[in-house]
UniProtKB/TrEMBL annotation:
Location of the Aminotransferase class V domain: 25-398
Encoding gene, per UniProt annotation: sufS
Entry protein name: Cysteine desulfurase
Catalytic activity, EC: 2.8.1.7
Domain of life: Bacteria
Listed InterPro entries: Aminotrans_V_dom, PyrdxlP-dep_Trfase, PyrdxlP-dep_Trfase_major, PyrdxlP-dep_Trfase_small
Pfam families in UniProt: Aminotran_5 (PF00266)
Top-level EC class as recorded in UniProt: transferase
Amino acid sequence: MTLDTDFVRAQFPAFAEPSLEGQAFFENAGGSYTCAPVIARLERYYRQRKVQPYAPYEASQLAGAEMDEARARLAAMMGVATDELSFGPSTTQNTYVLAQAFRQWMEPGDAIIVTNQDHEANSGPWRRLADAGFEVREWKINPESGLLDPADLENLLDDRVRLVCFPHCSNVVGAINPVVEITALAHAAGAFVCVDGVSYAPHGLPDVGGMGPDIYLFSAYKTYGPHQGIMVIRRELGNLLPNQAHYFNAGTLYKRFTPAGPDHAQVAASAGMADYIDDLAAHHGITGDAVTRAVGVHDLIRGHETALLQPLLDFLKDRNSARLIGPVEAEHKAPTVAVALNRPGIDAATELAQHGIMAGGGDFYAVRPLTAMGVDPERGVLRLSFVHYTTRAEVDKLLTALDDIL
């Protein structure tokens, strides 16, 4: 099955926006365009339902129902229970709240494992548990490839480890980590698993229930939605950790790790993400239950992205003036491509802008992995990231521009 990119792009108002005409967007890892169903729901909420939800009058009932709809539909697509999914102001904030819960729950002598493949928003809050006296063990990447080796994780696991934190894929390395295998290793050692999915979820909602991690985090604003953090916490762990919210909310799982009230309008608008996935499924003849539809759309998206990614990797991998970070095979990589140059990445991005290419340069909060791979964070990398609404013509335009500036 081939992704219908004309249909896809018709669902994103940005592609009809005159101010963006002629611009090819290659900084999607920093935030994607927003799909029309999300925008429509957000506008409707602010126009018709901007009241405190869950009161007995109609506007309030409709407001609460849309918030519940977003949680229920996204949870179903990810293969988890409705109350196992919650919203917070950002993934970084959600991670900090979870780290505080683990700090209160863990006992002296306990350890956690983090990687140096993460960007700092997921790694930093967990690393700060060392200040509370807990041991923080680092699962290190290969300095040449940037990859994590599960065999190295096995050497770090023992009965003192309470949590293993790692990214589904890195925002600079781009390698897709084997979540199922890593989760199985951690669970066998008696540890819980936290997966940072921020850089992966834009390439297809994951079947969290099927993969098995205890925590899965990602950002709606990078997944065609509003600026919210979405957090899955499986019930066993969620009920085990201390409540971080108002004491009277302790009995509601999706409220336990949201200390402040969520942004009602943005939560409601997140149902538009589910609308979009269902629209893609229906247009391409993908049927079945919520998980089956989401998995079908995921596979459709990955097929399209992989076909577009390989020519870019082939172009970059043999360039003497550029060091391609991460895998050179598209099937093992998300379409997030970081390139170390002999000049600051932001300078290259500035030159690409003159060619109608919107890209980014810098360290992207990935100071630890860049340093581990011998890349000067001050110089950073040029990052070229795309998603399924990118076309072959835009990739060709990028290759032409890169040929000129490199």
